[in-house]
Amino acid sequence: MLVKRNAGTAATRASLARRLNGLSAGTAGLGETVDRRGFLKTSGLAAGGMAALGALPAAMIQKAEAGPTLPNVEVVTRKNVCTHCSVGCTVIAEVQNGVWTGQEPGWESPISQGAHCAKGASVRELTKGERRVKYPMKLVDGQWQRISWDQAIEEIGNKLLEIRQQSGPDATFWLGSAKFSNEGAYLFRKLAAFWGTNNVDHQARICHSTTVAGVANTWGYGAMTNSYNDIQNSKALLIIGGNPAEAHPVSLPHMLRGKEHNRAPFIVIDPRFTRTAAHATDYVRIRPGTDIPVTWGILWHIFENGWEDKEYIRQRVYGMDEVRAEVKKWDPATVERVSGVPGEQLYRVAEALAKNRPSTVIWCMGITQKTTGTANVRALSILQLALGNIGTAGGGANIYRGHCNVQGATDFGLDVSTLPSYYGLAEGAWKHFCRVWDVDYDWMKSRFSSKELMEAKGIPTTRWFDGVTYKPEEIQQPSPLKAMVVFGHGGNTVTRMPEMLKGLEQLSLLVIADPHPTTFAAFKERRNGTYILPACTQFETDGSRTCSNRSVQWGEKVVEPIFESKDDYTIIYLLARKFGFADEMFKHITVEQTRPVPEDILREINRGCLSTGYTGQSPERLKMHMKHQADFDKITMQATSGPLKGEYYGLPWPCWGHPELRHPGCAVLYDTSKHVMEGGGVFRARFGVERNGVSLLADGSYSKGSEIEDGYPEFTMAMLRKLGWDKDLTAEEMRVIQAIGGDKVDEVSWQTDLSMGIIRVAMKHGCVPHGNAKARAVAWNLPDPVPLHREPIYSPRPELVKEYPAIEDRRDYRLPQLARSLQFKIADSDIRQRFPFILTSGRLVEYEGGGEETRSNPWLAELQQSMFVEINPKDAERLGIRDGGMVWVYGPEDNSKARMRALVTERIGAGTVFMPFHFSGYWQGNSLRENYPPGTDPIVLGEPANGVTTYGYDPMTFMQETKVTLCRVEPA
Amino acid sequence: MHRDEKPKAAKTGLERRSLLKGLGLGAAGAAAAAAALRAAPAEAMESRQEQVKSRYRETDHVKRFYALNRL
Amino acid sequence: MARMKFLCDAERCIECNACVTACKNEHDIPWGINRRRVITLKDGVPGERSISMACMHCNDPPCAAVCPVDCFYQTADGVVLHSKDLCIGCGYCFYACPFGAPQYPQATNFGGRGKMDKCTFCTGGPEADNTMEEYQKYGTNRLAEGKLPLCAEMCSTRALMAGDGDVLADIYKERTVRRGYGSGAWGWSTAYGQNDRGDAFSPGREGTGGS
């Protein structure tokens, strides 16, 4: 049904013929310029087109622009995926002569159906790249010098090897990116492993690390349980701590259709009346940092009225009674005292969720970026368990991930605490990956300073600078960090930027591989030892990316890398080659010249990442899915016709077993109403089979067609033997299992069996390989087994601090963590008086992340030209602040301050101010524009919100607190 | 600054625009003379009748758009 | 004969500005020219609604009525177009237009504005369809290619619609019925009081006004 581009060409030709009829031969040459964008070729980078309209009088335009163009320039259509958020909108690019000249709606996409937001509708600009880094550069005495790739790799490599020699492998911090493809993320993690460190991290640390920790500890996997599309099945929606209308605009059509078709209550809980709240049926304004009181306040009404799903809880949830005891404390009066939310309003919310099932809960960084992030996530998960909403279409915990591949990059272990696919760092995990990589375990061990450090979590990105500046004895590794290699990650994304700058200054080596120079390059604290490598965008290479809903989409290269940029694979390869381990690292990955082939990387992923079910998504299958997008249902995401009939779009993980098994992927996790071979599932048995005499396995609940009609532990050889199912293994599978297990064959599990025989046999009997357990309302391995409210470190309510104290000070991730001592000190000081506003932060639709890329895009930059702080009219009036006037925002640490415009609006409640976090390029009132390498400064600069944010970390993941701190605002 | 207020060309924008002016002229300058010989704009004009004729057709593409709006 | 219309469903519009950048992308519109923009009313308070605005391609366009050089014309599809060759940049159309559609590339000390630019409903101008000349002055001509304006085609929430006015009216009616409350037409509550407006904050409640 969708008209292909060539049909359009035919229409154009017809018009040409018609015109030629009436025209003299003399115009034929001009007539041949029918192609509407062919002229772009003459101006090389297509930049000329920008000036075509308006800027010049029409007559001049003609002279300047109308060069000869090739007649009927062939239009090649390429399909890729938007690089700006986790929704995964299809981008249809039209390419002429190797230049991306047009963009059409990708209507066949089951996810986006042709839609884009401001960012997606402007991605073509990325490959024009006026402001991109064009060639490798190094900083010499404060001046940027152009150098060759060879020189860059040679010098960077030598310096890194020297640091490794002198200070050990852990002295280098490898910061990867959620902008990587899956293959790039996996390769980067592998690079860090071969280098010999676990100091490798990426943006997930600062977006959903607490979600992953929270939900994985509840029911097994750290991901969105359902999908954007599935929200259309929801009978009620609760959006808490998220503003998808700006952060994930193309999720909104699904949510609004759910609202309209089902007449579903659409409830938004947020300190700020967001653009999402503008479409809400009920808006609840809370004090920032009181998510648990509010969640327990909702659950209080549910328990009080007996609205919980008792049978579901009996069969599938462990420990709900302990939660009940905690929730009991949160009666409406207490909730109102702490959070400011009236009891009857939460009654209405509870009733809406309970009486309109299945109901879904959607959350984002308002929940996760907190000192209680993991506990917040757990509380919401428990709310959904109480309502029996997990494992059902229309229900679920719909966690919106941030970046375009933050889910995939997390899955592939760009993380200080695990190898790819959440295998962890224990010896068994390393041995598994050494088998996958076909390298000797002892050799791998020799790459690290010690076996202990090989199995110890690294320093996370939220605190890398503490790893540089703290005294060596405070850091649990042989040396503080000396070098940092950053791929695709802004420098304004972490809190406590004044401290970050000190760390930046002390690094001996800083390497930035990015399409843009990033904030890291803009500070003049560094005068030498900084290198910038031009990395291209995902539109200039190919590879797969995983959306928030776990669907994996293959992006096709649209154009060749522009200027001298190279893709991530190539840069990683060049570094590995320089380090001398490229042959080992790419043993089973074809390298074409210096570019590893992404398909081969994915095949290696398919062979080794069994535990998350990343085995079935072969490059061939993914490409078929992109080709046959039109065959998928727009709500269920299941193909209803064509060669992929029955499969779910993008084979959302887990997609069990070999690709040949044709597992369809799982659209809804833990869904017992389906057979495991049809995408059904159960809660993962990850935490043993019993605790204190109570079974942790599911009770009488199992996925459709399971031969074991009850809970069961995860599958191992021992279990297969016990069941007598080992006979179903083929001789080849048995051979592989024996080779892996040696004299401990019984211990080979579904996760380590590279033959995938155990998985195949389990599914043959209708069982889910990871076992069938209860979800845990009580997670005894976490600091708070049952989520407890704890006031933020910089609490705006000092009188509540003793009642709801932060956790005890502790150590983790090789660093000390202050919590209660600091919180009490602050509460006892006059900070609250001197910094009377609560400061919270969030996103704007036009920009993404640190914002360097999007602020360099003129089409977006024009829409949002200055950094601002939202302040309520009552506060503004009191302080003499005018709408649009300049103000200073002061933070309570390091004499921090930032200058920006005031946006006076009731959007934000009195006593709270809001800042977007995408800005950078100003520092404490001064422009840093001159510091960027010439021609690479983003169009719009502004003060970074994190210039005034403060200390505070989640104990599980060291997630930073960006949503609640204190500040003072004064007219500038 | 109101978020819904879109200020006219900021300073940076103007700079960028003038940069592009140079680029466009430079890149296509040589070709311009040749093109001017062939390109007589008046001859590319549509007649009044052609100008106002209907162009809209309910193609599959358009039908697809309507269908998506009904979802 | 089908008549081309834009219709923005304010219940759907989330002010994501996709329409704005899609337009920029499709026609390579320079900084400072905004053929389309998103307007938000009641910004930041309950009742906040946004609507995407461009040239509305009026039945009886006031811009054409005041143009001293008669550079406007309307196609059989109802699309209002103009000739940049005729335009003298006087700015009268800007004063006449109720929607602020006309845009000007220049602002000089002598009042020169340059040739007026505005939304063409992706239908180009008086030059032959899909030629270089047409593209350079007016942008692409999607209508001639059997497509619709890209702003609507890429709208994130299917708020902004473009096409045959009768079809759009039907689609909008279907949506209103489905929602169970009125369109919340602009000005309704001012003219007839809050009760008749229908209530976006209580979907499921029987609608009264607007539908």
TrEMBL record, chain C:
Cofactor: [4Fe-4S] cluster
Entry coiled-coil feature ranges: none
Residues covered by the 4Fe-4S ferredoxin-type domain: 4-34, 78-107
Record bears the keyword Electron transport: yes
GO molecular function, one term: electron transfer activity
Transmembrane spans: none
Keyword annotations from UniProtKB, A to Z: 4Fe-4S, Electron transport, Iron, Iron-sulfur, Metal-binding, Plasmid, Transport
Protein name: Formate dehydrogenase
Species: Azospirillum brasilense
